[in-house]
């Protein structure tokens, strides 16, 4: 049982939770994730660790309310407990070999690049940050990125804020000027694929973070497997970060859809209204 | 004592056609009359060959003697002195290769049904709440990693000697393979829970949601505890490395069984989804393959086919599981190996391209190795494929504790006392042997507990 210490809405359907989890916080590093179950009968769902405080023993996660469990989680308030909260899982990020990094976040992927931005600043090599969202309302952590990024670039699909365009449009413009030696991109799979395809041509090392479907998160079930450079890897223990140029994106995207139909039926069956 | 010829007492079972569609336990267990009657078949051999066949050395003739006399509690006490989980072992041990294989009656009209008797006694003990005595603390603390058969056994033995034990479990529920792997119809989860509750009554603490190597490191545990036992289990499911294996509809038996057993995906109201298929192929022929195949049948598959590259004789599953599976209507495609998985336009598996095999000369392990027969390729329809080919060691402990000794395969290496190269750090079960049986893991947990007690000066 882990208590929710703070909760705030960052965007429509996106909520930030600060959770009391001393053991997780003690061992957490940027790039890792946790798995939670909302209640006693809940499913196991992975979330990236967005922030942590070792002294306070807290872990911050960002949750987009898109399915049964995330909507159910949203029904909990400050002081309520999340039934199970386990981690940190996966390998921490290692960007030590790079000096001039750009972090690219799309939608909920912002949760993954935020701790990286903080980390890189602390290490004395602050990164440029590109954040993209469908519209202005969905841009998250702008203030926080202003504090930790070398330079922040925002873009919206509909042009409702700063500029109109995808993160790849911004990245394409910046690469010739900024001469990045690494692109760290996290967001929906099609966005990570688009970034990887762009940087492959330009031969810029690109790290992505997989948000695969998981059960145990400890290597035991193989549900999160993907093909990287022709080899099967498990996102939970070999990742979640991989070389974006080596990922078989078509396969990964197909695998991410495996429960799509069932989820729809399920929400219906469980009488959860996903439109709210 | 005169040897009376009497056939082995058959355990009552649910009708095959009915049980193939429900998750209730298949074997119904002896009643006291049947148990007594079967115990009477024991010849009480002086050299007790059955006992030598038991990985934890249960004193079989003695407990059967008590059972025959009608003193079930006394029988339970005898079993419990070397086996902390009789209800579990009575159900899942491969007795035909262990105690019952050694039984003198095996060569006559059938071995004494030792497993069934053990199950009867174990269940009696759970039902009649044979109170666990809390032993006075000896002032020592031991950390146990993993709450599967190895960890539970080690913890129980240590607690019996007054050691303060804390078990660290990665999942949200204790029991390891007993809860995520073995299905309800073969091992009711209520029983496992009762065993775990009994352990807690003895004073054993269980910390759930704690992944060794991640939430807590072996180094931290070494500092805090007088000894550490690692029973972290087998690890990563193996796949075949053939084309199409990552198509939707293809999954490991571990994933399938965990979703169904631990996450209760067989219940409609469960938030955890599980894939389903009309024509299910299960690759492999061990106990896990049988469990997966029979689960698929219960979840509504029209056909379930076991695809195995060797023959009927070589199938590694317990005889009873194969027998039950066949009775329930599971089909066998023996001497058959899949070489490619083929998908439909939605990226979901629709068939397996297979090749027929023949058995050649015995290999290093003594098993006859299968080779493909040229030109024998054929297609097998399957809209779901479950891969049950065993596991490879989980690298998580090693990654967080690089100094711990592992084999080339990645399994933990232990000495004759079950101790790793790190002083005071012991290991046992599948983490050491690779995927094996519940009882072997229990044997290892027990052996390690004795060594730990010796090392801590408790014994």
Description:
The complex is a heterodimer of chains A (276) and B (459). By secondary structure, chain A is an alpha/beta fold. Chain A folds into 2 domains: 2-89, Translation factors (Elongation Factor Tu (Ef-tu), domain 3); 101-256, Rossmann fold (3-Layer(aba) Sandwich), CATH 3.40.50.80. Chain A contains 9 helices and 15 strands. In chain A, the strands form 3 sheets. In chain A, strands 6-1-2-5-4-3-7 form a 7-stranded antiparallel beta sheet. Chain A has a 6-stranded mixed beta sheet with strand order 10-9-8-11-12-15, sandwiched between helices. The two termini of chain A are 27 Å apart. Chain B is of the alpha/beta class and 459 residues long. Chain B has 3 domains: 16-128, Fumarate Reductase Iron-sulfur Protein, Chain B, domain 2 (Orthogonal Bundle); 141-235 and 392-455, FAD/NAD(P)-binding domain, CATH 3.50.50.60; 239-389, FAD/NAD(P)-binding domain, CATH 3.50.50.60. Chain B has helices at residues 16-19, 32-39, 49-52, 60-68, 72-80, 86-92, 99-102, 114-127, 149-160, 177-180, 189-201, 218-224, 253-262, 287-298, 319-328, 396-400, 430-433, 438-455; strands at 141-145, 164-168, 205-207, 227-230, 235-237, 250-252, 279-283, 303-307, 331-333, 336-343, 349-362, 368-372, 378-381, 384-387, 391-393, 425-427. In chain B, helix 14 packs parallel to helix 15. The longest helix of chain B is centred in the last third of the chain and has 18 residues, at 438-455. The radius of gyration of chain B is 23 Å and the shape is globular. The two termini of chain B are 39 Å apart. The mean pLDDT of chain B is 93.
How is the secondary structure organized here?
The complex is a heterodimer of chains A (276) and B (459).
Chain A: E1 2-11, E2 14-20, H1 22-27, E3 33-37, E4 45-53, E5 58-64, H2 68-73, E6 81-82, E7 84-89, E8 101-106, H3 110-122, E9 128-133, H4 142-148, E10 151-156, H5 167-178, E11 182-186, H6 189-202, E12 206-209, E13 225-228, E14 231-234, H7 235-238, E15 241-243, H8 249-256, H9 260-269
Parallel strand pairs in A: 8-9, 8-11, 9-10, 11-12
Antiparallel strand pairs in A: 1-2, 1-6, 2-5, 3-4, 3-7, 4-5, 12-15, 13-14
Chain B: H1 16-19, H2 32-39, H3 49-52, H4 60-68, H5 72-80, H6 86-92, H7 99-102, H8 114-127, E1 141-145, H9 149-160, E2 164-168, H10 177-180, H11 189-201, E3 205-207, H12 218-224, E4 227-230, E5 235-237, E6 250-252, H13 253-262, E7 279-283, H14 287-298, E8 303-307, H15 319-328, E9 331-333, E10 336-343, E11 349-362, E12 368-372, E13 378-381, E14 384-387, E15 391-393, H16 396-400, E16 425-427, H17 430-433, H18 438-455
Parallel strand pairs in B: 1-2, 1-4, 2-3, 4-16, 6-14, 7-8, 7-14, 8-9
Antiparallel strand pairs in B: 5-15, 10-11, 11-12, 11-13
Helix pairs in contact in B: 2-4, 2-8, 4-5, 5-8, 6-8, 9-18, 13-14, 14-15
